[in-house]
């Protein structure tokens, strides 16, 4: 059993402010949980508290139902992979992987078995005699993971393990990490600032901001039902488009953008019931790039807008088309074969039911 | 004119090099085959100086003394310097003060330090012996006992120079990335294990530098015995450099002194080469 529970966890460095305020998470056995958020939001701090490298200022940390606040790192049954790998430069790959086992006075033959098994799993058997400086970034990354595996821990902690790799290798390692998770059947807690990594790896994702948990949910839920404007803007590429405006106070339920570029009739939309109590209030509309299209989908309510392209980015399979509404920058994900160029006006149909609305004051989603 | 400018720019260095390095080296090698007392003209005597060197018991004693000094001085200096650097590397209250305090003796004149220590170690009136006598133990003849004097000097020289090596080690320790220690913490490494398996190998370049610097520094032991003991008692603190000095400037045996110096330089070179072979490791 390696459930990890954080109960009202808080952290302040020295006499400084609290960089983790009040975090409550219940991470299930064998779950792959990703902590994601912008740089400086406290991801590493949280992970290092779980690892035992930082003292916990407040709250209770349970690993496998045992309170471990005051348990030293090596007795927490965890292993951690660092961003810069932290491989010892004076040791070979084998020695690096065997180091922790040697410190535990494990018999030599067992050390050998474990290192060989981990090396086989990671396909680094041919590197065992090399020094870290003679390997590529991807190979070092594998060794760093191998060093964690040999200990056979119940919980793996990763702090941005892929951020030093190039994009292609990163994609490859993502797949391998998923496979590793299936093979090892262990709980994994993974820190990244890259929301794509988070979406592809996590069973569930914790979105952090300034030391507060914004939302803890599955990737699909985060994408479809972000709880607030921050999560909505953070999850998804390109990021969600936002348009500040106001709901009509009387008459038919309408959204009007602040500078009047957009007026939407919402009386028939799925949002109507939830929005009813916000009539007359300032709200922000959010719509993702993929929920706008050049042709209407039959049978759906899709209001039409005419906009002027500021820029078009062709990626081969799609065209990211930029334009302005009021003074907000928008981007739409359009089919690649649309012959659009700079400055051209074109029609866009919005999937009204896929829009999000946020209370302009609290930034919370209105549902 | 333009073409000459580069030569003018390097000229001061080249001149300095020729006058103060190249010429003395070449001249002293030439000297080793001559007899010369500065006043009379040089007289060529072939390998006589070298023959004399190998028969000169006093020179071999001075060499032996120097090695006795090094044997205590180098391990003591490196051990203490590394230990102090380890302590100072922690976020210790007043670390900046101690860093400065340890470095102070390095920049104080060797003559001043030596005179201070001479008083400290004096048999009758020295503070150390008064302390020892105060707790009822017999006084030690720190500088007057042939079996002890050289070691007293070794301790004093260590005190004088250790600050420099503390700073060097401190720099070395600070180049070790903290993640290495964190990774070891996760494995439950003790402080000793972290020191032994991470710190020591990681600061090997610093260790090698310190070993070589303190070896060369130790070989040139001169001021301390010259002022405190004048090489005595019974030549027990006569260092090699001091003997070379005496040959040159007390007896004006310039040729012989040059021979001793030349031989001594080769010896230091050999010792450093051995250290390079056995201390330096690739990381
Ligand atoms: N050792 C430390 N001492 C003081 N403040 C720190 C320390 N480490 C991190 N912080 C602060 O804590 C906050 C969270 O940092 P961190 O957990 O590293 O963020 P992230 O990993 O999400 O980028 C930041 O404001 C950072 O400046
Ligand atoms: Mg971080």
Q: Helical element count of chain B?
A: 13
Distinct compounds present: adenosine-5'-diphosphate, magnesium ion
Could you list the spans of chain A in which at least 5 consecutive residues all have pLDDT below 50?
Answer: none
Order of helices and strands of chain A: EEEHEEEHHHEHEHEEHHEEEHEEEEEEE
What gap, in angstroms, lies between the N and C termini of chain A?
A: 37 Å
The CATH superfamily of chain B is: MetI-like
Main location (chain B): membrane
Domain ABC transmembrane type-1 (chain B): 63-275
Family (chain B): Belongs to the binding-protein-dependent transport system permease family.
Membrane topology (chain B): Multi-pass membrane protein
Describe the structure.
The complex is a heterodimer of chains A (367) and B (283). Chain A has nine helices and 20 strands. Chain A has helices at 43-51, 93-103, 108-122, 137-149, 167-184, 195-201, 219-224, 229-234, 272-275, and strands at residues 4-12, 18-27, 32-36, 58-63, 66-67, 78-81, 155-159, 187-192, 204-209, 212-217, 241-247, 254-257, 263-265, 282-287, 292-293, 304-314, 318-325, 328-335, 345-350, 356-359. Chain A has a six-stranded mixed β-sheet with strand order 6-7-8-3-9-10, sandwiched between helices. Chain A has a five-stranded antiparallel β-sheet with strand order 13-12-11-14-20. In chain A, strands 15-19-16-17-18 form a five-stranded antiparallel β-sheet, with no helix packed on it. Chain B is an all-alpha fold. Helix content of chain B is 72%, strand content 1%. Chain B contains 13 helices and two strands. Chain B has a two-stranded antiparallel sheet with strand order 1-2. The longest helix of chain B has 33 residues, at 57-89. Chain B is globular. The chains are: A alpha+beta (367), B mainly alpha (283). At the A-B interface, strand 6 and helix 2 of A face helix 8 and helix 9 of B. The complex binds adenosine-5'-diphosphate (ADP) and magnesium ion. Residues 43-44 of chain A line the site of magnesium ion (MG).
């Amino acid at each position: 059993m390696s459930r990890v529970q954080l109960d009202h966890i808080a952290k302040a460095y020295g006499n400084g402010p609290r960089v983790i305020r009040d975090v409550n998470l219940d991470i299930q056995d064998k779950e792959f949980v990703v902590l994601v958020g912008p740089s400086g939001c406290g991801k590493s701090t949280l992970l290092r508290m779980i690892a035992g490298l930082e003292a916990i200022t407040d709250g209770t940390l349970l690993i496998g139902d045992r309170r471990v606040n005051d348990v030293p790192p090596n007795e927490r049954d965890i292993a951690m992979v660092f961003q810069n790998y932290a491989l010892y430069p004076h040791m070979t790959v084998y020695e690096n992987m065997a180091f922790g086992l040697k410190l535990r006075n494990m018999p030599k033959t067992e050390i050998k078995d474990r290192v060989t098994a981990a090396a086989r799993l990671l396909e680094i058997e041919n590197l065992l005699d090399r020094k870290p400086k003679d390997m590529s970034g991807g190979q070092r990354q594998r060794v760093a993971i191998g060093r964690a595996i040999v200990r056979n821990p119940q919980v793996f902690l990763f702090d941005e393990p892929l951020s030093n790799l190039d994009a292609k290798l990163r994609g490859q390692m993502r797949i391998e990490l998923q496979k590793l998770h299936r093979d090892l059947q262990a709980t994994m807690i993974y820190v990244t600032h890259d929301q794509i990594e988070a979406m592809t790896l996590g069973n569930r994702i914790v979105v952090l901001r300034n030391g507060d948990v914004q939302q803890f949910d599955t990737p699909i839920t985060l994408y479809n039902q972000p709880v607030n404007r921050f999560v909505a803007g953070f999850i998804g590429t390109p990021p969600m488009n936002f348009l500040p405006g106001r709901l009509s106070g009387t008459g038919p339920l309408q959204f009007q953008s602040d500078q009047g570029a957009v007026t939407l009739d919402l009386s028939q939309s799925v949002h109507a019931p939830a929005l009813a109590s916000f009539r007359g209030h300032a709200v922000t509309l959010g719509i993702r790039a993929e929920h706008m299209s050049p042709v209407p989908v039959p049978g759906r309510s899709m209001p039409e807008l005419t906009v002027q392209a500021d820029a078009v980015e062709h990626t081969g399979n799609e065209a990211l088309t930029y334009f302005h509404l009021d003074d907000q920058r928008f981007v739409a994900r359009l089919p690649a074969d649309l012959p659009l160029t700079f400055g051209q006006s074109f029609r866009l149909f919005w999937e009204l039911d896929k829009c999000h609305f946020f209370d302009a004051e609290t930034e919370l989603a209105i549902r | 004119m333009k073409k000459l400018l580069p030569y003018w720019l390097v000229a001061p260095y080249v001149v300095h090099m020729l006058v103060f390095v190249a010429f003395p080296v070449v001249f002293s090698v030439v000297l080793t085959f001559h007899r010369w007392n500065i006043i009379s003209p040089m007289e060529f005597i072939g390998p006589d100086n070298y023959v004399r060197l190998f028969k000169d018991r006093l020179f071999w004693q001075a060499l032996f003394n120097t090695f006795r000094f090094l044997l205590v001085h180098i391990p003591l200096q490196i051990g203490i310097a590394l230990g102090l650097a380890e302590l100072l590397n922690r976020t210790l209250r007043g670390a900046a003060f101690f860093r400065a305090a340890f470095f102070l003796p390095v920049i104080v004149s060797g003559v001043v330090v030596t005179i201070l220590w001479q008083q400290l170690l004096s048999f009758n009136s020295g503070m150390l012996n008064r302390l020892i006598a105060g707790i009822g133990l017999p006084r030690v003849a720190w500088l007057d006992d042939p079996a002890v004097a050289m070691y007293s000097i070794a301790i004093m020289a260590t005190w004088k120079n250790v600050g420099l090596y503390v700073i060097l080690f401190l720099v070395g320790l600070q180049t070790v990335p903290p993640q290495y220690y964190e990774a070891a913490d996760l494995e439950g490494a003790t402080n000793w294990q972290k020191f032994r398996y991470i710190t020591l190998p990681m600061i090997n370049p610093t260790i090698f530098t310190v070993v070589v610097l303190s070896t060369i520094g130790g070989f040139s032991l001169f001021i301390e015995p010259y002022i405190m003991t004048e090489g005595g008692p019974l030549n027990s603190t006569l260092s090699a450099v001091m003997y070379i000095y005496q040959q040159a400037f007390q007896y004006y045996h310039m040729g012989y002194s040059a021979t001793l110096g030349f031989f001594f330089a080769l010896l230091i070179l050999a010792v450093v080469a051995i250290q390079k072979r056995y201390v330096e490791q690739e990381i």
